[in-house]
Amino acid sequence: MNGPATRLIQSGTRRSPIRWRMDEAGWTALPAALRQEPELEFLGLWGEAERVHAAFRHAGGGPPLLATADAAGGRYAALSPARPAAGLFERMAADLWGLRAEGAADSRPWLDHGFWPRHAPLGRNPKPPLGELPQPAFLPAGGEGVHQIPLGPVHGGVTEPGHFRFHVRGETILRLEARLGYAHKGILGLMRGKSPKLAARLAARISGDSTVAHAWAFAAAAEAATGVAPPPRAILLRGVMAELERIANHLNDAGFLCDAAGFAWPHARCGALREVVLRAADSAFGHRLMMDRVVPGGVSIDIAPSGPDAILAALAAVVAELPPLRRAIDGHAGLQDRLAGSGALAPALAAGFAAGGFVGRASGRDFDARRDLPYAPYDRLGFTVPLRQAGDVAARLQVRLDEMAESLAMVAALLARLEPGETLLPLPARPGEGLGLVEGFRGEVMCWMALDEQGLIRAVFPRDPSWLHWPLLEAAVQGGAMADFPLCERSFNASCSGVDL
Amino acid sequence: MLLPRLARTLFRRPLTDPAPATYPEIVAALVERLDAMARGRLGRSLAIRHVGAASCNGCELEINALSGVVHDLERFGLRFVASPRHADVLLVTGPCGRNMNEALLRTHAAMPDPKWVVAVGDCAVDGGVFQGSDAVEPGGVGRLLPVDLLIPGCPPSPTLLLEGLLALLEAEVTAAPPPPPLRPVEPTMESWAEPRRDGPVPEDGPG
Ligand code: SF4
Q1: What residues does the NADH:ubiquinone oxidoreductase-like 20kDa subunit domain cover (chain B) (predicted)?
Q2: Which residue in B52, B133, B134 is closest to A183 by CB distance?
Q3: Shortest Cα distance from B171 to chain A (angstroms)?
Q4: Whether the predicted interface score ipTM is above 0.95
């Protein structure tokens, strides 16, 4: 089943169970080989000083596959001609490490807006600042009567900063381009040289709404790098937290989505339920969003003695409310009229970009890391992965509501299995590398980490699923009405902070 | 289908939390600040504009929760507005990433005086965990804008946020005497009937 690209990667020297180091010629041949093996999904690309890494995975199954090559002279062959999803990563690698992707279709700056004290701050030789950049050039849209609408980085509501540039004709969106980087805070640079234990606080703040998922992926990478298996109780508690996070976020976004369509009642109800869930999380784990609770080696805090009951009470409230909420949403003709058909994402695009989470599963991409790359505690839980084909806003909402029902059952099952025991093990200070992959509410969060001789972080890259969602949002709104954009944006809810790093 | 559910809520205990208490010391400090700056009175209502200056979006989640039924910000006369031109309060979250500086300063400049700046979250207060990064303004929002109130926490809970915002309202109300009226006071019905002794009757009412 191995295609030419897989064989090419695996012909390099094996540096870890999942990573191969390719020579320059091998990497240069990679784009052509990738074209011949479309089922090898692209997951991400990142750099190191004069080195480039890319992650792939077979659509059919199996663990991720990492390829590394030297970027001699700061140059490497671009993968974006073969995998368009690599485009944003290549622009990011240029800004952070000064690595140039040769043959890339797009080499405009991405994260660096010209305000940093140094360009390529993570490269071997940081360069002088870019200085004031000219007004950003946006991809054009031709034709008569076309005009542009700039939106952001400060939006009407309480949201993250991002700029959207629309080319519209009348009410129709001809092209949308998102320009991000406004939430960049230099997370990768701060993580470098720290111990995993210290850097975990940063990992928890890559995207606040996915704090548990990011902290877990980071912890899993650190544990894989040091060969530590976290205690069983900690694993169960991680599962509880991750599912609570999923429920809270699905509730939040379902509410906001209905509100964006002008239907306020579900928003009010979902908001109230979300508050119930967060308060239960607070009483069980001492933090509403459960930040800094998942740490390398286990969990930093055991569940409070009254925690399980508080969580079960909150779940009961959601379980009781969910069916009437769904009936109201499904039965409201005006709402369905707005949701059905808008922001449709073609299954081929979702598959081509390896869209994770509800975005992929609403467009027929049947992948859930909890089931397809099983990790504890999900390997011993029965659950179904909802799937839809339509790919529109309605389908994404349905997938999320279905998922929520599954998560509610999972939390109860996980709590029932809790046995007394340890919750945290120390990590030895030793070199190694590891990969963590955890299904967050948006999709799979992947984190790769390499530790140096003292057990400090030499290189790290946390990949939020939003990396692959942003270009898909741009594609999904194309041809739609401008008035539907808030709906589409909400139904993707891609993270700015998660990709701005 | 929806109507029975809506009707039921009429008879249910409201979901809204009681208002949190404000700390007299914080209010006093704010009043002092207000006096020192001789700002005009905004009244018992504040319009709020939020700017996420490279936050991790955790703070935004909690700020958004304020508008929900549980915290119901609007019952206090506090509301979020879409335009800085309508805003009295700038809520800043995040460690002030350099890429957001310009947007942040422009938003602040677009707000009419008098205005408050509130730093929300540990990041905005002093950079939080992002201290030491090249990509953020060292020292939090205070380095860029005059900050009136700090609400620490990572993220601060909605209750804590509410406490802070209510303290602003309290300060507005208890602060300096009301500003002098901009136009002559309109005569009341009685004053028309009885010629006033304490001064001349204004000549023109508003036609
Ligand atoms: S204070 Fe904490 S929650 Fe708020 S933006 Fe900063 S890291 Fe995120």
Answers
A1: 56-168
A2: B52
A3: 25
A4: no
